[in-house]
Amino acid sequence: MRLNKRTIIQLCVFFVVSVVAIAVMVFGYIKAPGNLFGFGRYQVTLQLPESGNLYRKANVTYRGTEVGLVQDVHLGDDGGVVAVLSLKDGTAIPSNLDAAVHSQTPLGEQYVALTPRSGESPPLKNGDVIPRSRASVGPDTTQLLDTITKGLQAIPRDNLKTAIDESYTAVGGLGPELSRIVQGSTQLALDARQNLDPLITLIEKSQPVLDSQADTAGAIDSWAANLAVITNELRQHDSSVAGFLHNSPPAGDEIRKLFDRLQPTLPIVLANLVSVNQVAITYQPALEQLLVLLPQGVADLQAGMIANQNTIQPLRGAYLDFNLNVNVPPPCTTGFLPPQQMRPQNFEDYPDRPAGNLYCRVPQDAMFNVRGARNYPCTTRPGKYAPTVKMCESDENYVPLNDGYNWKGDPNATLSGQDIPQLPPGSPPAQAAAPPPETLPANGPPAGPAPPLAVTGYDPATGTYVGPDGHIYTQSNLAKDTPKEHTWQTMLMPPTPN
Predict the structure, then answer these.
(1) Average per-residue pLDDT in the chain?
(2) CA-atom Rg of the chain in angstroms
């Protein structure tokens, strides 16, 4: 039988199409090389506590993508279930992962889902074993359906109809809103999958935080109890809170207007308060001590004001004691200008202040002028006392002029060699003052400075005293037994030395 050319061409085309279709079915759909001979695949053993209705040829997914199938399911030597997974080459699956058996639908269609714990672990390779500690099996869908059926049978039909009707009423007409919720949940799941490693790290690192919350459960309970008390007080004073909220906007407007009026001067005041603040910080201990003593001082003042209240005394007020101890102790002159430079009290001019510091410069433990400048406490140097801030802040210590109260010899001569007045550290020594004009003679060289004047105490019983030259003198008319009447001639008589 001879075939014409057209038939032969048709048979050839049919043969080629059949070969292509068979190749597509074998290599593309059936995937015979991989499924039958294992080309392009590697095997991983999964240990399961139970089968979970897992069957051969079930899919294996990694992050929702199919990466292989279940090649075999059989019992293990230890009584568990072993599933042999045939995975495709070309997909790097981390070895640090979890495996779970899930159901795609309520009717079954189980599959194995691989979820990585960390993307930094090495990938799976042929012959690896996923231990049972990292495998889980979902609930049995048959038992789940049986439980749902029994639950529905236990609900009365009328009540079930009411529940369905109420559910329709609750969600009826909310299709767009439910759609947005579903879309948002889907997008949230997608974003969570893209950031899976940080989420896994967050979950793993959350244990210390949760443990701290568990350890401080008592404090949290106390905080909740205090919050309940506050909310209860707010509920009881609801009208007051409402009034406060109602009146707050007008009060805020008034405060804003006040700041607007103070705007030209308020920045200047605040800038000046910076300096005051620095001083207050420096003297904080002293201010605290003042605030501590202030209530007791006020109490003492009140006690003195009402000492004779509700009594038969005709006068009411504070008790005052005018017990004058004149010249006890006598005034301190050590460290001040010598007597010949003192100004009479009746002078009304105001000359320049002498350079340096004038204060009582006796020893700090002397009984005279104990509240003087020499005993000022240094706020920034506890335990140190000095007359000036510069001396407080420096390493210089206070040095008295001499160890006594009254001068001996030249009033300007000191045992310490310090200047009078006391000059700041680093200042040039003071120059001796020129003698007054009236001490200069009309002709001849200028005369020397006037002899220094000395002030000293005397014995009122005998009239004796120590002179500038160190000798003891007796002024008889200063004694107590001296007659009261004196003539001008006796006043001009010189004292008699002993």
Answers:
(1) 78
(2) 54
